[in-house]
Amino acid sequence: MNSSTADLRARGLIAEQFDDAGQQHATAQFGMWAFLATEVLFFGVLFAGYAVCRARDPEAFLLGSQHTEIIFGAVEAGILLLSSATVTFAVNLIKFDERRVVTALLTITALLGVIFLVLHGIEYSHEYDEHLMVGVDFAQHGPHARGIELFFFLYYAMTLYHSLHVLVGVCVLATMGVLVWRRRIRSEYTTPLVLAGLYWHLVDIVWIFLFPLMYLIGR
Amino acid sequence: MNSTVITPDFPELTPPRDFYTHKSGLLSWLLTTDHKRIAILYAITITLFFIMGGVAAAMIRINLVEPQGALLSAETYNKTFTFHGVVMVWFFLIPSIPATLGNFLLPIMIGARDLAFPRLNLASWYLFVIGGCFTIACLLLGGVDTGWTFYTPFSTMFSNTNVILVAVGVFVTGFSTILTGLNFIVTTHKLRMPGMTWFKLPLFVWGMYAVSLVMVLATPVLAMTLSLIGLERIAHVGIFDPALGGDPLLFQHMFWFYSHPAVYIMILPAMGVVSEIIPCFARRKIFGYKFMVYALVGISVIGFFVWGHHMFVAGMSATATLVFSILSFIIAVPSAIKVFNWTATLRRGRISFEAPMLYALGFVGLFMIGGMSGLMLAAPALDIPLHATYFVIAHFHYVMVGGTVMAYLGGIHYWWPKITGRMYSEGWARFAAILMFFGFNFTFFPQYVLGYLGMPRRYHAYPPQFQTLNILSSAGASILALSYLIPVVYLGWSLFHGARAGNNPWGARGLEWQTTSPPPKGNFLERPVVQNAYAYDEPAPGGEPATGATA
Fold this sequence. Notes:
Helix content of chain B: 55-70%
Helix content of chain A: over 70%
CATH superfamily of chain A: Cytochrome c oxidase, subunit III, four-helix bundle
Number of helices of chain A: 7
Structural class of chain A: mainly alpha
CATH topology of chain A: Four Helix Bundle (Hemerythrin (Met), subunit A)
Low-confidence stretches of chain A: none
Shape of chain B: globular
Distance between the termini of chain A: 52 Å
Shape of chain A: elongated
Structural class of chain B: mainly alpha
Strand content of chain A: under 5%
Oligomer: heterodimer
CATH architecture of chain A: Up-down Bundle
Number of helices of chain B: 16
Number of domains of chain B: 1
CATH superfamily of chain B: Cytochrome c oxidase-like, subunit I domain
Radius of gyration of chain A: 21 Å
Strand order of the largest sheet of chain A: 1-2
Radius of gyration of chain B: 23 Å
Largest sheet of chain A: 2 strands, antiparallel
CATH topology of chain B: Cytochrome C Oxidase, Chain A
């Protein structure tokens, strides 16, 4: 902190309910962690549903998993891991006011998110062609057909909710990039960027659990 | 008054500019980030929802005057009790105390200028209103007939009503609850004034903290579960569909994983309110402060592990039934500690029976009856025959209406002078409180008997031998309705004509009584002095002498 509390307050960087910048930053970060806890519970329902349904018909889940495209899933996992690394660099370099580098890193992170969404969209279109799209066009045969349908219901519910989070993350990261470029976020006030980074890591972690449960179990 | 009054152009006796007069105009309310104004926005909104839910309740009670149903067809009856349940649970009881009194008082009680995230607080109110609009739209388009519990497979495969619309409404409102809880947790952790340590917090703040933990950790489960219902209705496929190897019982587990803790969302704030009122009017320190804190937090934690007692008749394994039964008995322990400690606080107190105290004492009695009948239902051997009867209805109305609504009204009366700066008519308030106690018991005690005699719940008609008790219940409901209307009149009158309250009309402790009534925008004109919130054997710092207020 290289500016005085009074100075930061006069420039509107400390809200009136806080005593100083340190308290404000700690409060915001605590709030984000609490929010992430709610997200864990939110996705937790889907994971619990997955566990129950898989326990009832494990064979169908293994067969269903074989219909997913592992190359896409693996590349998507790699992209998200890479994007977590770039956002981490951005969060650390903002302390040194590396404005251009940080903006570039945030742009790369957001673009990686966009690539993830595009790849997933291609995956969905392939699944549509193979009559796997539950609720729209699903046609599988054999003794486990209905169990496979259930697997794909969960696959769509979980990946769509995850993709929705990726989309929100892309928008947030792009906004952060603009704010850094315009010097609204800099070493004296990094809070929004730190929070965006935390959120993006959650998006990444959810995929780290989804990837093996959806793509790897049948192989 | 103090020397830092900032409005020299006002006459000397006028209090310094308060949060009402700080800014004016409708927009200054709709865009406010002041926690006190948001509390008032919530208070107005939930009162409207309470009236809507109350009208539905009145229709139910009128219908049940005659065995064949006096007013409603079977379908309309189903839609009416669903509307009553959805509105009363999600749009009145859950936000009732936290979003109004909690929003107003939590920052003041810990010596903060606002909640940690004021804009998020306003966003919560807007989410609440949007969720409410969906629910009302559902009503206008013909209602929904699943009951407030949305049990599958009826809600996913068979019901031809607007399930998705009301599920969206509850989903959106759920996020308003989550964000309020998040705001309270973070505020309590990070914005306590210097010297306000955890074990100096008033029990009301502890109640808000405990309830916020439940809000934040349980409500996301409801949101996702309802969204799965919506997806299943759209796609005609889903994890609750037995034809696919899914499990309708899984829905009940997920729903009650939220909805049982939700019962504690409704009662924990009420316990917080009562823990403030009883010491004040008994002029005694709260008995066993630390045990009260542990009990509050204990209830919120154990509350997450008892949901299965809603499912004893749903086909769980005998082992699961036994475990959930034992856990449900265990949660009675912290609840009982609280009742013992409220009672022990009264011992050797100089008790006076102002209206808030009448509500608080009413709460203790009714909560105890509701809680004891809850213990009966925790035993599977009793629950299985009683589960589908009016006994259950009577049980949860004793806790939610006799408990939470009484405490909410007690809190409104207790902090009314602080919130509005005016006193209300003490005589009318006492009359309404006593009338409410009797009206409530007339309405719901007969339902215990009806349940014991075997009258099933959720039907628009019933065998003729139950008519006498049903008429008694409906007659009690009309007394209850009257006792809810009286406060609207005298509190409304007080807003404009009530006597000026002063800073501390009850001679109470706690930081909220050190500031002006109504408080200024930043809550305090001078930094308050941290004092034990229950130090009734010490003089109040900087406050007015205790007056034993009358209007």
